[in-house]
Amino acid sequence: MEARDISILELRGSSIGNITEQSSSEEIFQNKTLRPILKFQNDLFIEVFMNYAVKQKGVFFTLSPDKKMAYIENTIQRDIKFRNSLKGMVFGLFTTEEYNTYTKNSSNLNKRMMNMLIERLKSQIQVFENVTM
From which domain of life does this come (predicted)? Predict the structure, then answer.
């Protein structure tokens, strides 16, 4: 294993979630790779989303909590450039082997990745409450 891959694995930490013999390959990838990366990059994802919301005229910050949650979901699902930027923040912490695994089933893994990121941001909606423009 290359030094980069070893460093990345040490940086990210161990698996998050249960992996059993019945776990699918997607579930294993999710728990061994995606969850640790999303957790590690959490603060950056929050800052990137806030910056995005500000650049979109700050409408997000005037919404009710329920509408903020819908905004987060709609933005990540519909803004392809923004979504690709978020994916890039995840890909950058893949090992070479993980990237090769990802490319074999990228469509399903992208759905998992974005759904987990949406839920992560929505679960921290209070972080966006006291932002002043």
Answer: Bacteria
